[in-house]
Design a protein that fits this description.
homodimer, SH3 type barrels, 2 domains, 12-stranded mixed β-sheet, 5-stranded mixed β-sheet, Fumarylacetoacetase_C_sf (chains A, B), metal ion binding (chains A, B), metal-binding (chains A, B)
């Protein structure tokens, strides 16, 4: 099932379910059908989440640690986590203004997990029972600010630094999915979720060991190798097998 | 004016205004009076905020940088910022379980700012126009996790690591207020907001330069010297002149 949040042609915002070329409106996320249907191509898809927080994994593919000059001889024993704030959310097809404060604006394509119910101190083998579904995300990053600042807030949580979508796919096994990032049609990242150092269930269990995850909260699972710069006018997309493609454009400096 | 969020004797949750020993219920935050009043001592005060994010300043008093072995010969030119997630909120009088993952659980008493309206790219001299009011907060910190982890999420955003209250004081000039932290009745931190490296208006302007602050969002302005450990059974309080006192207790390990 594909869950979407969308703006109807007149601008009002709704939740719904995609079936082929149709969007069936629901009463809120996971509510019953209202009976009102829209043509998929006539609505504007929005980030399909309204999270209280976005938790991310910093280093979760060996090849990405290598390219960031990390030491792969001693891999982390626990997921390295950080936060993105909800102001960072951006929609599918959104234009992301090139941020004024950075000269190194980087894409990181990722698999995102959406939480279904409150989750605290949940063991690994039960963790996937708390998942609503999966979607695609960009962990946009100002690499220079990431190096220079006390913590990664400006580097990771500036407005529109977390495009997400196009929808939540609820029927999916996250353990071995292709994940691919393209910029202007050229493949830049091409990996599989089976190459994660920490599995989705391990990541969720670790987070829940110290903080409660709430329904709608989002977890970004890390990026494979091939990260690189975005320039004004670039079109970037991340495609996760079994979900679909999230596409964004980079605008001129705001 | 003192704005409170509170649980009525029967458990229902409301917003209101404190006048002497009475709480006058309002229709939501800043709504009109409902006509229903409560005796202050008969309600349970809650964290007086429902933020989409909590932004904090890491090093904002020279004496605290010294005690953390920081280099004070070259003070930061911009506020060092980080996030706390909303799951970290805790209420006045709350019992904070001693976290299982730390052996160095520290208090940091702080002045907290609550935002009134959407704030993006606002210059310093207009920043205070976007403030709803001020309250007291603890930036509770697992110092060992802060040293060891990739970023400060477990160290700063574990459940109940951000007690806040007792109310939002709307009529206050934040530039020179006494701020005092006590543990079991002994003074541990005793400073003035005039000793901040970055003023409230500077902090807010800096944050708004890259991320939109929304109504109800919270900004913690840093802690003076005197941070230290909390132990099971401790009672800790932070008092800010012109606001009042936020008191918490430390429980046994959960």
């Amino acid at each position: 099932m594909k869950i979407v949040r969308f703006a109807a042609p007149k601008g009002s915002i709704h939740w719904g379910i995609v079936e082929e070329n149709e969007v069936k409106e629901t009463e809120g996320l996971l509510g019953s059908f209202t009976g009102k249907n829209f043509v998929l191509s006539e609505v504007r898809l929005l980030a399909p989440v309204e999270p209280s927080k976005i938790v991310c994994v910093g280093k979760n593919y060996v090849d990405h640690i290598e390219e960031m000059d990390g030491d792969v001889s001693s891999l982390p024993k626990e997921p390295g986590l950080f936060l993105k704030a909800p102001n960072a959310l951006a929609d599918p097809e959104d234009i992301i203004p090139y941020p004024a404060f950075t000269k190194e604006f980087h894409y990181e394509g990722e698999l995102a997990v959406v939480i279904a119910k409150p989750m605290k101190e949940v063991p690994e083998d039960e963790a996937l029972n708390y998942v609503l579904g999966y979607t695609c995300a960009f962990d946009l990053t100002a690499r220079d600010a990431q190096r220079e600042d006390l913590q990664w807030i400006r580097a990771k949580s500036a407005d529109k630094f977390c495009p997400i979508g196009p929808w939540i796919e609820t029927r999916l096994d996250p353990t071995d999915l292709g994940i691919k990032t393209e910029v202007n049609g050229q493949i830049r990242q091409n990996s599989r979720t089976s190459l994660m150092i920490f599995s989705v269930r391990k990541i969720l269990s670790c987070i829940s060991s110290f903080m409660t995850l709430f329904p709608g909260d989002v977890v970004l699972t890390g990026t494979p190798s091939g990260v690189g710069e975005l320039r004004r006018g670039d079109v970037a997309s991340v495609t996760v097998e079994g979900i679909g493609t999230l596409k964004i454009s980079i605008g001129s400096q705001k």
